[in-house]
Amino acid sequence: MEQADFTELVESIKEGASILRGEKEASRTFQLEPLDIKEIEDGDDLTQD
Prior knowledge:
Low-confidence stretches: none
Number of strands: 0
Radius of gyration: 20 Å
Order of helices and strands: HH
Strand content: under 5%
Oligomer: single chain
């Protein structure tokens, strides 16, 4: 691994750790909606049978 890539990786890990500790706010977040499996199965004629 190139030194510049390794340095960037280490900085990213440190930033992630500070976000997890609540010291820094994440630059972006994602909100995922739960999937309606029954609707998916019915729409594609799929079943567990």
